[in-house]
Amino acid sequence: MTKVALVAKMTAAPGKRDELVEAFGALFDAVAGEEGTEVYALHLDGGNEDVVWFYELYQDMDALTAHGTSDAMKAMGPQFASLLAGAPELSFLTPVRAKGLTFV
Q1: Residues 65-94: tens digit of each pLDDT
Q2: First and final CA of the chain: distance in angstroms?
Q3: Which pLDDT value is given to residue 103?
């Protein structure tokens, strides 16, 4: 199985970054039960107060698909729409080496 990573850049609507970060709380609760989700990390951008970044690492593409189509993600869609300035910018990656990760 090949691991799959995703980096997402999300720009909050002006003044909505903290609300956006808070909204992710429900997703973190749901992700705790996703067996194939290995890393799910939210970051604040040090140079732009409206931007947040997500790094996600999945066991394989099936795990990423399961996360992306989960009931929790579907439920968050409308809430995110009101908090984002536009569509997230997504980059899909294939990790090959990393400290702290096992590649089997």
Answers
A1: 999 999 999 998 888 889 999 999 999 999
A2: 7
A3: 74
Q: Give the number of other Cβ atoms within 10 Å of residue 11's Cβ.
A: 19
Is residue 104 included in any domain, yes or no? no
pLDDT in tens, 39-62: 999 999 999 999 999 999 999 999
Q: What's the token pair of residue 78?
A: 């409308």
CB-count burial class (<10 Å; 0-12, 13-18, 19+) for 38: middle
Tokens of 5: 């990573």
Please check whether residue 99 lies inside any domain of the structure. Answer: no
Who contacts 85 (Cβ-Cβ below 8 Å, separation ≥6)? 11, 12, 13, 14, 50
**Which two tokens mark 102?**
């096992």
Distance CA 47, CA 69 (A): 32
Q: Which CATH number belongs to the domain containing residue 68 in this structure?
A: 3.30.70.100
User: Phi and psi (nearest 5°) for 21?
Assistant: -60, -45
